[in-house]
## 1
Amino acid sequence: MDPLNKLYIEITTQCNLRCQMCVQRTWNTAASEMSLDTFRRLMDQVHELPAPPIIHFGGYGEPTFHPNFLDMVRLAKATGARVEMTTNGTLLSPEIAEVLLDLELNRLVVSIDGVTPRSYGDIRVNGSLQQVTTNLRQLFRLKMRHGGRHSEPKVEIAFVAMKSNAADLAELPRLATRVGAWNVKVSNVIPHTPEMEREILYEHSLTACTYRASRWTVDMSLPKFDWDVHTLSALEGVARSRASLTLLHHSLSARNDYCQFVQEGYAVVRSDGQVSPCLSLLHNHPEYIRGRRKQVTHHSFGSITTSSLRAIWESPTYIAFREKLRVFPYSPCTTCGGCERFPFNYEDCSENTFPTCGGCLWAQGFVECP
Ligand code: SF4
Ligand code: SF4
Ligand code: SF4
């Protein structure tokens, strides 16, 4: 049996921000949150697993907004699991930070999509960059007192790159150093609206040979280069040519048809207890790819309120789904985008049925998990 290595838990869909690219902007349902009793039950179920998975507080809501958030972290740590969270960082007061340090939280991912108050505020509506950096610096000071700069929680920045904030990428390492973060993870935006589709930084890459090695393309192998006035426009030309690229012996096509959630043993529990294979299938939502709307329908393999996590993970239908995903026999809908089946994830032209994954931006390396 392939192990469950990481469990994302969405304890709430409530949030104090209203970010431009958030999927919540497309919802017309009321926010929901997981009760402490349900969470306790879930942690009992984690105890039944052969080994505790990493528990990651994440999903489509702000975990620190949940009134029982710290109790939940305590219960999660009691399973013996490594515990992580993704947060917008705005509510991370020194009091909360102190408790998280005492509870030995292992990893803290903070979403920051702009390095200036203006670029941040344009995207993270109702948020304040100053508040987030102040909170992170206070956390860093507390860490220095507890275990030193390299102690846990390991702080990381998650940045969603778009046309409107791409210029900020160069300043991210400096910002990270300033707030005590050691890692910056950049993902692309998932375009849930036509406006967000106009913001994407991968319009050409959806179909480019650069990332699509095949027997019909020449592969071009590149060494280390200075990325400067002499090389940048030439490299842009290479990226737009008909060659697939290899950089320092790493093919840029390595992450095609690769579902990280399945390949690396992840699952997601929604705030109502439904267990989904990934963040993409956690909620119904629209995506706009190559000018066309695709409605992604939520998929669950069961609920922890009526079954157990172990029974769901080990159910024949979920095992068969994971085996199929490793082969990835789906039609290439992100590169094609051209038939009557495209607007839904119900079926594709390779005779796959719901949920079809060929149009998934995560599996084609455009969107990355925290
Ligand atoms: S912080 Fe996260 S959940 Fe809240 S609005 Fe922004 S993207 Fe959505
Ligand atoms: S189902 Fe086939 S024809 Fe239709 S969009 Fe996907 S790849 Fe293209
Ligand atoms: S390929 Fe995409 S939609 Fe399918 S399980 Fe993986 S992340 Fe989810």
Note: The radius of gyration is 21 Å.
## 2
Amino acid sequence: MKRLLIIWMLAHPLQHYQCSAVIFKMTNAVCESYNKTWVEFGLCRLRAVSRNKVCLNVDANLLYPVHDVIVKARLLKRANGYKPWLYSVSFDGCQFIRRRNNALIRIVWELFKEYSTINHTCPYVGLQQVKNFYLRSEKLPTPIPTGEYLLMIDWVFNKKPQAATNVYFTFVEDLKDS
Ligand SMILES: *[C@@H]1O[C@H](CO)[C@@H](O)[C@H](O)[C@H]1NC(C)=O
Ligand SMILES: *[C@@H]1O[C@H](CO)[C@@H](O)[C@H](O)[C@H]1NC(C)=O
């Protein structure tokens, strides 16, 4: 019994330490408008709060209402340049906000929703913001392999790409665990 307790006590701080050893942070963010009469980015910036916490702030001004959004997302992983990795999805943004019916998109949404003003239904117009968003590994259902990633999102309004937001991030697995 006593031995078990000691093992438990040893294991717990260790687990805690292992969790915090994961690095999951953004390294670059690029926002681009393809149609400046419709979408204007006022801000698209990362800010390092501490060594392993980097916050993203985006201000996007929609100068005309958006009633119809297709979100095209690709996840790439670096290996001699960025190569497609695992997922490529395309979904109706207006419908997703209503139904939240795709597992992968829900993960991204869970990471993101508290930090954004886009948690309402269509139409979207005026200033859309992401405020002090940062990545939290505890929100991932499963770790991903150590590496450098790029999440590319094309925002398609009225059937044409109008803007792109590309976010680069690093994930470093808990190596002591494997
Ligand atoms: C650019 O945005 C304006 C305003 O919404 C729109 O009328 C126009 O069709 C868009 N241009 C393209 C190429 O989609
Ligand atoms: C959207 O986010 C705001 C601020 O975090 C929150 O107060 C509001 O309840 C959210 N709305 C929905 C529909 O989730």
Note: The pocket of 2-acetamido-2-deoxy-beta-D-glucopyranose (ligand 2) is lined by residues 114, 119-120 (CB under 6 Å).
